[in-house]
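Chain A, query sequence.
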Amino acid sequence: MTPVRFASLVGSAALALGLTGPVASEESEIDLLTGLKVADDWELVRNNCIACHSLKLVTQQRGDAQKWLKLIRWMQKTQNLWQFDPDTEARIIAYLAENYPPAEHGRRAAVPDELLPPNPYAGSAPD
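Chain A, predicted structure.
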């Protein structure tokens, strides 16, 4: 079974059991099961992201469209995330950029690679 199909089944089962549904908040509606903001394409994000990790990882992040695209590319390169068709990818990125944009306060930006000390373990394989 593909991850997308599995995620759809999980989402459908949760809906059937009444484990999900929007709840009102000050800013917008939040899905009780996932914590995602209920807006256009939130279910598309849920169905594609929950197959691999908790959606808490999504809701804790902030970024513009370019950052979200970079995260998707990193997951595809290093975490075995499947390729999206262009329309699906564009809709996921639009949802994320709109609902989880950069914040003035929050986690600090990552230290640029050129400012980090050399990694003594880089290039060495475990025995």
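DSSP finds five helices and two strands in the chain. The longest strand covers residues 22-23.
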